[in-house]
Amino acid sequence: MDKQWAEVCCQVPAGLVDLLADFLVELSGNGVSIDNRALDTFTLDGIEELDTATVRAYFDPATDMAGQIAQIERFLGDNAAAFGGAPIPAPTVTLIRDEDWATGWRQHFVPTRIGRHLVIKPTWEPFAPEPGDQVIELDPGMAFGTGTHPTTRLCLEALETLGRPDRVLDVGTGSGILAIAAVRLGARQVIGTDIDPDAVIVAGENCALNGVEVELVTTPLALIPGRFDVVLANILAEDLVRMAGDLAAKVAAGGHLILSGILTEREAFVVEGFGRSGLALVAVSREGEWSCLVYRNEG
Ligand SMILES: C[S@@+](CC[C@H](N)C(=O)[O-])C[C@H]1O[C@@H](n2cnc3c(N)ncnc32)[C@H](O)[C@@H]1O
Which residues are involved in binding S-adenosyl-L-methionine? Predict the structure, then answer.
């Protein structure tokens, strides 16, 4: 049977988060998680701080949960005054299965066909390719990009329709999935860049797994030399618009820019943001709540 955990959830003043997290790690002997805000950007510059945050801790349910909760309530009561004085809601306890907590995502990651010939295959799953299939083996680790997310899928579909590119730049490479696909589709030179050094390590492992050569860097976009036949950026609307000038400058004459990570409700915002980029919008595709825009440098 799957192991179970008692998930204790505390909503506390933002200033108390670090102190509480340390206390809960000590008390539970396990890690804690702090809920992320749903932001449309990877950059925190100019983002207003929230007043409260949610901290979750994980206990073995066989332990004395009533005793643990009493200790947590005492800790919250002792600290409430120092952090605004408002009463802190009582922690809630939910029983969850281990698979939900740590590795549940693996169940949903099965070999997936995308476009006509691309197949994304988890390293641990068997798969019998059909003639012409381009199989990408992947273990995303903690980096984003299994191909199961619509933003990645939309990018891969758009990339395949553009035929065989020569030079490709993958901005925000994550697991390296788009960069590897570009090589599989025949690109001669591919550069993948990410602001997250851990993502670059995972991307490197995935490139090695697939026997493909991709130059992986953490170099800021503006400092990457040259122009590319295809520039891919599956980031988020705010970031794409902020980077519009640098992204457009990297597209060679006759080349394409594929933008993804855009909630459809933010599509108009991105179209407007690229209005003065000098590129022409040539295709829009959508899946679920996500949009993907393809621009062309007509110059
Ligand atoms: C949504 S993931 C995309 C991963 C993968 N390319 C895919 O399509 O599945 C976005 C990635 O962009 C990276 N990122 C965010 N802002 C960036 C920036 N300004 N320059 C480069 N990478 C960035 C993040 O660290 C993250 O790995």
Answer: 152, 172, 194, 234
pLDDT over 50 at 101, yes or no = no
Share of the chain above pLDDT 70, in %: 88
Residue of minimum CA distance from atom 23 in ligand 1:
172
Distance of CA 14 to CAs 39, 80, 112, 190, Å? Answer: 17, 12, 40, 42
d(CA 114, CA 272): 29
Question: pLDDT tens, 165-216?
Answer: 999 999 999 989 999 999 999 999 999 999 999 889 989 999 999 999 999 9
Closest ligand 1 atom to Cα of 147: 9
pLDDT digits (tens, 9 = 90+) for 25-36: 899 988 788 875
Cα-atom radius of gyration of the chain, to the nearest Å? 23
Spell out the domains of the chain, with CATH numbers in brackets: 4-104 (3.30.70.120), 108-296 (3.40.50.150)
Q: Tell me the C-alpha distance between 76 and 73, whole Å.
A: 5
- Tell me how far the alpha carbon of residue 266 lies from the centroid of ligand 1, in angstroms: 18
Q: Of all protein residues, whose CA lies closest to atom 12 belonging to ligand 1?
A: 172
Angstrom distance (rounded) from CA 44 to CA 38: 12
Checking if the pLDDT of 299 tops 80, the result is yes
Residue 242 has φ and ψ, to the nearest 5°, of: -60, -35
The pLDDT mean for the chain works out to 88
Cβ of residue 235 lying under 6 Å from some atom of ligand 1? yes
Supply the ipTM of this predicted assembly. 0.99
* 245 annotated to bind ligand: no
Find the helix or strand (DSSP H, E) in which 282 lies.
strand 280-287
Is any ligand 1 atom within 6 A of the Cβ of residue 261? yes
